[in-house]
Specification:
The chain is of the alpha/beta class. The protein has 12 helices and 9 strands. Strands 3-2-1-4-5-6-8 form a 7-stranded parallel sheet, with helices on both faces. The protein has a two-stranded parallel ribbon with strand order 7-9. It is globular, with a radius of gyration of 19 Å. The N and C termini lie far apart (43 Å). 48% of the residues are buried. The mean pLDDT is 96.
């Protein structure tokens, strides 16, 4: 039995779909906060169980009979570690034999502010005694989807990444990798640094938008604090703006780059390039 937490999320649904290509539906458990939102998964024959990170009492029952558990990291920054700890404790109590965790690229050494709770979670997994495997995911190409339309409209892409290279891949790529690891034997103790085969600078990203759209688009690089302030001006909450600016600053120093190609090796195909994400979003403008 394989359980996926956060199975109604953007990544979770894709993992379930990828698993169903090789695993019978009755051996897959969608562990979700709201079962009512998982009726489409239930219709596929997948077991749906309530598992709310913020309600630990729901977790142990959700993991009953589970052999392998994919812990998809919480989206609630600042609450992630306590929520992940509750999942780990419940999985241990339920006798789960392997936890796969979606961490962040090079979590143990990353300068990204977002890495802190991932690092804490990795330490908690180590201390738990439950066998585990780390899926250290890099950036999603979808992180840049919303930038395309505004770049075409205003002729600019803002950032603070300087010439840092970003090795992004699509959610579907990372989901396929998670599914591949979950169906393999002998994964306990492994650490996968997962990133796209190809990388880009923000200037190259802007140039690709210009190329595909036929509109002039330039990259406007700025100091981290200035970029954060600009994001607030366009309506982002201060905390989220600060996280985005921090991520860009880390990218400037290589924090979002990896050329090990472990992701494409796991999924048996090339990863999705940023040009494909740009093309798809230009179609919707």
């Amino acid at each position: 039995m394989i359980a996926i937490t956060g199975a109604t999320g953007q990544l979770g649904r894709l993992v379930v779909q990828a698993l169903l290509q090789s695993v019978p539906a009755n051996q897959v458990i969608a562990a979700v906060r709201s079962p009512a939102k998982a009726q489409d998964l239930a219709a596929l024959g997948v077991q749906v169980r309530q598992a709310d990170y913020a309600q630990p009492a729901t977790l142990q029952a959700a993991f009953a009979g589970v052999d392998k558990l994919l812990l998809i990291s919480s989206s609630e920054v600042g609450q992630r570690f306590s929520q992940h700890s509750a999942v780990i404790d419940a999985a241990k109590a339920a006798g789960v034999k392997l936890i796969a965790y979606t961490s962040i690229l090079r979590a143990d050494t990353s300068a990204l502010g977002l890495a802190a709770e991932h690092k804490e979670t990795e330490a908690a997994l180590q201390a738990s005694g439950v066998p585990f495997v780390l899926l250290r995911n890099g950036w999603y190409t979808e992180n840049y989807a919303g930038v395309v339309a505004t770049a075409v409209q205003y002729g600019a892409v803002m950032g603070a990444a300087r010439e840092g290279r970003i090795a992004a891949a699509s959610r579907a790529d990372y989901a396929a990798a998670a599914a591949a690891v979950l169906v393999k034997d002998g994964q306990a103790g492994k650490v996968y640094e997962l990133a796209g085969d190809t990388s880009f600078t923000m200037a190259e990203f802007a140039a690709e938008i210009a190329k595909q759209s036929g509109k002039p688009v330039k990259y406007a690089d700025m100091p981290q604090a200035v970029y954060a302030a600009e994001l607030v001006k366009v309506g982002l909450p201060e905390g989220f703006a600060a996280l985005l600016a921090d991520s860009d600053a880390a990218a400037a120093n290589g924090g979002l780059f990896d050329d090990g190609k472990q992701l494409s090796q796991l999924i048996g195909r090339g990863t999705t390039p940023i040009s494909q994400t740009i093309a798809a979003n230009l179609l919707s403008i």
